[in-house]
Structure formats: structure tokens, C-alpha cells
Automatic annotation (TrEMBL):
The keyword Cell membrane does not apply. Residues 24-360 form the Leucine-binding protein domain. It comes from the Bacteria. It comes from Ciceribacter selenitireducens ATCC BAA-1503. Residues 1-23 form the signal peptide. GO terms for biological process: amino acid transport. This is Leucine-binding protein domain-containing protein. InterPro entries: BCAA_transport, Leu-bd, Leu_Ile_Val-bd, Peripla_BP_I. PANTHER family: BLR7848 PROTEIN, LEUCINE-SPECIFIC-BINDING PROTEIN. Keywords: Amino-acid transport, Signal, Transport. Coiled coil: none annotated. Belongs to the leucine-binding protein family.
Length: 380
């Protein structure tokens, strides 16, 4: 499925006489606007379309309008690779944004690397940018960073023994691996370790095993999609009575709606400033950015802003900033400018990239959040 966004050029006609056509800067995207990851990809698609309209209305980039060529891969890695290839070979884009999930991102990476076109991913796994790949960047915090932020909070609360339940999808498996790798750095023992499949509708047996493990003080769910909502409901039904931590992969109002406010009460997770925009201090450097995006998105779409749309917001802003600084729409010049991004304030954090860091965020960009009375609160 292909969605093409174009915006009328500012000076196409004057007194009924057409001016010379302006050059366009063609950027491509493949996201999961439909399918099992649509709660991630739909706000990404809408955000990209909205921002391109805004940028063109303001005069484009270096005086040239953007043309967004947008495909919906439905969360299918094979389709994502096909669309990425089409974007490069047929649509001749100068950069690609997308890869809503880790799976679709990993299928796009070889296309971007082989074609030498910069690619900014919207997925979470650390493998996307570690080891560093010359043409590949990303905007979400990594799953390793999410583990570290969660374990920091656990350590602060004297939690040393936990149970882990993880999805078997790409995101869940990657985050599980990263959490296991860094748990010891925070003095945390994983005493129980369970998994669930993407199609599982009841995680009660796994949670019962964790509940019955002696000494467990908290539970961490490494997963995204509908699974964490089911885990949260089952957890409440079992009255486990221990702190429940979720991943940044469910940091949205949609998670609370799916799980139910009562069941989600007290759930803790690392999230972005966007989720708590109204709670940010006036001096917070991200406040004006997140409030502007939140206001524009909610007015345009009639739906609540989400962390995932924020990833797309930051990707496009990084790309536009880089094209502007490069003074060129050539892929190599854009790539070099992305890598030199410094102090760019986004919804996810303040981005400063380097040759050995194609994310540009640290743990301070995460806010530790807790769900209270059906909404988000900052707990540190």
C-alpha cells in the first residue's frame, strides 16, 4: 500500500501565469500503519504527513519543498524490504525514515547500506545501531537503555531479586537479552524467567510461576504490542502484589486503555517527555517542543499524541535539520550532517550524535513514569 503526500508549491501561479517548477526533495518512509503494530505505525505515518505539510507551508528546506513517499508495510519485514528497495530504485528518495518494528527495521538496513542512502529507524533494539552502521541511525532509546533505567529505579527501591516475562518477538527477545546482560551491574538477580508468544491470550500460568518463586520482589515485562496489556490484566487478576515494570515499548495512552486503568494502576516504565508534557517544568528544554507537537497533532488528527509518533517527529526533524545544514540533498552529505547533529531538542530527548553513536541520547532522556488514576506521573 502506498500513500503519497504532496503539498502545493508556494508560487506555482501568479496572475494566472505558472512559474518554473521547483525542485523537490524526495524523502521516503515505510511504516506499519496497519497490522499488529498499527498502534505504533499509524501515529508515525500521520506525524510524517503533518510535518511535511507544515514544513512546505513554511517554505520547505533551503527553499525547496519536501515530497514524502510513504508506504504501509503492515509490519511485514518482507514488504518493508520490498518498499525500501522501491523507495531507492524507483522513487529515488534521498533518505528513508521508518522501520516501525525491530523486524521491519532489520530488513531495511541492508537496502540502505547497499544503496548508500541514510536511514533513520523508529524501532528500539540496540542491534540497529550497535555495532554502528555507516548509513543507519535511530530515534528511540535502545532496549538496553530501558533495562538500565528500570534497574536504576529498582536499585533505588532496594529491589534485588526479580521475575522476568518476555515476548518472543524481535523486540521482546532483544530486550530480554539486554536486561540479562546488565542486571548484574545493578545487583539484580533474575530468579524467574518466562516467555509468551505474540498470539497468546492468557499469561496466567507464566505469572503464577513467577508469583510462586521465593524471594521475588518485582516483575519486569520485556515486550510490546498487546502482550503487555494481557500481562497487566492477568497480573492484577492474580493479585501478585509486587511492583510491575513494563518496557518503553508500551509508553502510550493506548496501553492504559487496553490494559484497563484499574489493572494498570501502579505500573512503572521508562518513557519520554511527550507523555508528561503538561507536567514538565517551564525551564525544561523539551517543554516547548513537546507541547507544540502535541497541540498540532491532536488538533490535526483528533486523537491523543503518542510516544511512537514522537519518534517519527524527531526523525523528520533530524533529517530536515541535516539537509539544511548540509546545504545539499545528496545522500552522502545528508548522512554526514545527521552524524554531526548536536543539541537538537526533540520529543525523545536532546540529540547529539557522533561517529560512534548513531542514537545521540543518554539515560537522562528517559523519564521514569508510573500510572496513577488512569494517567501518567513522573516518579523521578
Amino acid at each position: 500500500m502506498k500513500i503519497t503526500t504532496t503539498t502545493a508549491l508556494a508560487t506555482l501561479m501568479a496572475l494566472g501565469i505558472a512559474t518554473a517548477a521547483q525542485a523537490e526533495i524526495k524523502i521516503g518512509a515505510t511504516v506499519s500503519a496497519t497490522g499488529p503494530a498499527s498502534f505504533l505505525g499509524d501515529p508515525e505515518a500521520k506525524t510524517l504527513e503533518m510535518l511535511v505539510e507544515e514544513i512546505n507551508a513554511a517554505g520547505g528546506v533551503n527553499g525547496e519543498p519536501l515530497k514524502l513517499v510513504l508506504y504501509d508495510d503492515g509490519g511485514d519485514p518482507n514488504k518493508a524490504r520490498t518498499f525500501a528497495t522501491r523507495l531507492v530504485e524507483d522513487d529515488e528518495v534521498v533518505a528513508i525514515i521508518g522501520g516501525t518494528t525491530t523486524g521491519t527495521t532489520m530488513s531495511i538496513i541492508p537496502v540502505a547500506e547497499d544503496s548508500e542512502v541514510p536511514f533513520i529507524s523508529l524501532a528500539g533494539a540496540i542491534e540497529i545501531i550497535d555495532p554502528v552502521k555507516h548509513w543507519v541511525f535511530k530515534t528511540p532509546h535502545t532496549d538496553r537503555m530501558a533495562c538500565q533505567k528500570i534497574f536504576e529505579n529498582m536499585k533505588k527501591n532496594a529491589i534485588t531479586k526479580i521475575g522476568v516475562i518476555s515476548g518472543t518477538d524481535g523486540f521482546g527477545a532483544s530486550m530480554h537479552k539486554q536486561c540479562v546482560a546488565v542486571a548484574g551491574d545493578y545487583g539484580i538477580e533474575i530468579a524467574a524467567d518466562e516467555t509468551y508468544g505474540l498470539q497468546d491470550a492468557d499469561m496466567t500460568p507464566q505469572l503464577t510461576n513467577i508469583k510462586g518463586t521465593a524471594g521475588v520482589q518485582a516483575v519486569l515485562n520485556a515486550g510490546f504490542g498487546q502482550g503487555p496489556s494481557i500481562v497487566t490484566r492477568n497480573y492484577s487478576q492474580l493479585a501478585v502484589g509486587l511492583p510491575l515494570y513494563q518496557s518503553h515499548g508500551v509508553a502510550s495512552d493506548g496501553f492504559i486503555e487496553l490494559a484497563g486503568a484499574k489493572a494498570a494502576e501502579g505500573v512503572r516504565l521508562p518513557g519520554t517527555a511527550l507523555l508528561v508534557a503538561g507536567l514538565l517544568a517551564d525551564g525544561d528544554p523539551q517543554k516547548s517542543v513537546v507541547m507544540a507537537y502535541k497541540t498540532a497533532y491532536e488538533k490535526k488528527t483528533g486523537s491523543a499524541v503518542s510516544t511512537f509518533g514522537g519518534y517519527a517527529h524527531d526523525a523528520l526533524r533530524i533529517l530536515v535539520d541535516s539537509i539544511g545544514r548540509a546545504g545539499s540533498a545528496e545522500p552522502e552529505a545528508i548522512r554526514d550532517a545527521i552524524e554531526s547533529t548536536s543539541g537538537l531538542v526533540g520529543t525523545t530527548g536532546v540529540v547529539t550524535m557522533k561517529a560512534d553513536d548513531h542514537l545521540g541520547l543518554d539515560l537522562s532522556a528517559f523519564r521514569m513514569l508510573e500510572i496513577k488514576n488512569g494517567g501518567w506521573t513522573i516518579i523521578e
